Amino acid sequence: MGSMSLIHWVVVVAVVLILFGGGGKISSIMGDFARGIKSFKKNMAEDESMSESTPPAGQITPPAASDAAFLKEAQRADEAPVDKKPV
Question: Where is this region: Disordered (predicted)?
Fold first, then answer.
């Protein structure tokens, strides 16, 4: 119980190499972590601004003129008969 097995020594050596391996590995890892947090916060702020610019669910906005062709095609698709096959 008092002695360390081979697995324990491997873990200790791995931790020492990571911490003291040189080249600023820990600082680069922390820098990447900080950039990830900043990116997350930026995207959350963009999502909030997008949700504020969309109309509430109860309001219907008229489609733009460029959407007319899409709307006609969607109406045709809704009116088209559907082949019903037994499953």
Answer: 45-65
